[in-house]
Amino acid sequence: MRDVFHGQILGVGSTSGVRVVVGRWLDSPLGAFADVMVADATGRRTLLAPTAEVADYVTATYTFDAVRQVPVTVSAGPDAWSVDAGPLQLTVALGGRTPLGRLLSVLPPSVAHSPALASLTDPVARVVLRGVRTRGTAGNGRREFYGATDQRAVTEADGSWDGTPLGRLAPVWPEPSFGFSSTPRRPSLVTLATTVDRTR
Known about the structure:
By secondary structure, the protein is α+β, with helices and mostly antiparallel strands. It contains four helices and 13 strands. The chain has one domain. Strands 1, 2, 3, 4, 5, 6, 7, 8, 9, 10, 11, 12 and 13 form a 13-stranded mixed sheet that branches.
């Protein structure tokens, strides 16, 4: 059984040590939704999910220490994103397309999104983008493939986690360890399709 999620992933780090990964999915087997993965300075990983259905699917694929079901709202503009998700408040400013984004944008989506291309590019991604994988084994024996078509830089970030200010924008490091792959260390917004092959 193969599920395909089309959307964007926002990955940011902060000087407080909190790392945030926001998924904004415009088309998926679960409908349109957004979810948030947060790793705090101690490494504790929390999923913020809008519904029980989303929480069940995501926790079957990734690893967390805590799950909270809260409304997740993403206001996505051309130059900024604003995220409101229970204990997380986040606003980011977006810069231009990165060199990698320009390269990715050349590929037709039908090619870029294919699991076959993800398998071919995985060895390169491991070397060029430390922590990033484009294919791998997820939870419950699931296989996952990432096919990106664009990347934009994040230039500023502001917000709070559980009432504590996040501080300034910083690299997404150490890796949050939600799954086999991380977002790029450089804070960015990636447009992509995520394919999940599952047995149940």
